[in-house]
Amino acid sequence: MHSGTIIHMSNVPGDWKLRQLDQPLKAVKYGGGVELIPAGFVWNGSSSGVLAPVFPRHRHPIASCRHDWRCRNAKTKEERAWADREFAKDVGKTSWWVTKQIGYIGARIGVSLGVGCRYK
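Structure (tokenized):
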């Protein structure tokens, strides 16, 4: 088990857009504490769309994995907003400030379009 700064992942056979965890990944959870994202969790990287030239899919695998996990489990708008802020923090650990901001803005645009929202 690693500190959360190393990710063990692989491609999902038959779909180049998907990655899966080969080992659990630590993540801070909403409200405090740490949880493990389980091995076998599948995510699509960054749903980059028009931002692809600046924010290509799978450039930030730890950030995108944690973000997809948190969004999948978000129960409120506040929890989703927190997930987006955590995404920006994670991107900021491995990239420039401007990339972190673009990722955050992209995530907030996504939520306004209903991307990744599981709560009512």
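The chain has one domain: 9-112. Helices lie at 61-73, 77-92, 97-112.
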